[in-house]
Amino acid sequence: MNENEIRRDLLAFARPDLGAKEKEAVLRVLDSGWLSSGPETKRFESEFSKFLSVENAIALSSCTAALHLAAAAWELGKDDAVLVPAITFTATAEIFAYFDCLPLILDVARDDYLFSANIVREFIKEECHWRNNVLVHCQSKRRIRVLVPVHLGGRSCDMDALSEIASEYNLKILDDAAHCFPGSYKGHFIGGLADATAFSFYATKNLSTGEGGMLTTNDNALAKKIRVMRLHGIGLSGQSYERSGYRYDVICDGYKYNMMDMCAALGRVQLKRSLDMLKKRQAIHNLYDEKLKDIHGLALNPKYSHESAYHLYTIEILENFGLKRDRFIDEMRRRNIALSLHFIPLYHFSHYRKKYDLDASNYPNAEAIYKGIVSLPIYSAMSLDDAADIVQAIYNICA
Ligand SMILES: Cc1ncc(COP(=O)(O)O)c(C=O)c1O
Question: E strand or H helix at 144, and its extent?
Answer without folding.
Answer: strand 142-147
